Amino acid sequence: MSTILGIIPARYASSRFPGKPLIDILGKSMIQRVYEQAKKSTRLTDVVVATDDERIYKHVESFGGKAVYTKAEHPSGTDRCFEALKQVKGDFDYVINIQGDEPFIDPTQIDLLCDVCDGKTELATLMIPVDSHEVLFDMGEVKITLNKNNEALYFSRMVIPYIKGKPEAEWHKHHAYFRHVGMYAYRKDILEAVTKLEPSSLENTESLEQLRWLENGYKVKCAVTSFDSHCIDTPEDIEKVIRLMGINK
């Protein structure tokens, strides 16, 4: 069985929501909630928060969590994960990048991603079926086009494939569309390799980092989850996420 390190990137700076990891959500900070949910995973060998901020670092230590310092100028969470990996003691086969803005992430989602970390898988992520026209044509939702092995052929904000001869409002009824759920697994050697890649033209066009990996020939395995993800990007999202999760205050 693979040894897997869960890393939660947590920056203090945010253009839309500065200090987001430390906001209070029903009596606990967001980063504490994410950390505690990740620790419930049955497959992670260890969990650590990767941050560039002393306030977040000390806060994680205060509730008994593990944290490491990473530099502020990383262009992506992937780069932050690789720096963190080099600081954590232990020999890990895989790293899972756990989003730090999903305070109610279901631990079974993490386990599901761990299940495809079999030594052969280079990179992996999660996806959820699309069941409505509104979601399918929401350009804020990233869709995944797959091969027969459930490996990503392409990620796009547009709808791919186009269905000829059918009304757009019915496309989701005639093809199995999936949208991306943003959690990644990297085999350790692949994580190091992809951090050395230059930004690609497809990545720059769609503003999707994972296209850099595909454009350079890496394979991304996709596992199907039934759990939706609810991230907090703005202060207004807090109440919305609490309501969507059906949590009683």
Which helices and strands appear, and what pairs or packs with what?
Elements: E1 4-10, E2 24-25, E3 28-29, H1 30-39, E4 46-51, H2 54-62, E5 67-69, H3 77-85, E6 94-97, H4 107-115, E7 123-129, H5 133-136, E8 143-146, E9 152-156, H6 171-174, E10 178-187, H7 188-194, H8 201-206, H9 210-215, E11 220-224, H10 237-244
Parallel strand pairs: 1-4, 1-6, 4-5, 7-11
Antiparallel strand pairs: 2-3, 6-10, 7-10, 8-9, 8-10
Q: Overview of this structure, please?
A:
The structure is a single chain. With 249 residues, the chain is an alpha/beta fold. The chain has one domain (4-244): Spore Coat Polysaccharide Biosynthesis Protein SpsA, Chain A (Alpha-Beta Complex), CATH 3.90.550. 29% of the residues lie in helices and 22% in strands. It has ten helices and eleven strands. The chain is globular. The N and C termini lie far apart (39 Å). The mean pLDDT is 93.
Rounded to the nearest angstrom, the radius of gyration is 18 Å
Number of E-type strands = 11
Total domain units: 1
Q: How far from one another are the termini?
A: 39 Å
Shape: globular
In CATH terms, the superfamily is: Spore Coat Polysaccharide Biosynthesis Protein SpsA, Chain A
**What is the class in the CATH system?**
Alpha Beta
Strand composition percent:
15-25%
Largest sheet: 9 strands, mixed
CATH-scheme architecture:
Alpha-Beta Complex
What's the number of helices? 10
Helicity level: 25-40%
SSE pattern, N- to C-terminal: EEEHEHEHEHEHEEHEHHHEH
Which stretches are poorly predicted, pLDDT < 50 over at least 5 residues? none
Looking at the structure, the CATH topology is: Spore Coat Polysaccharide Biosynthesis Protein SpsA, Chain A
Give me the secondary-structure category. alpha/beta
Task: Return the average pLDDT rounded to an integer.
Answer: 93
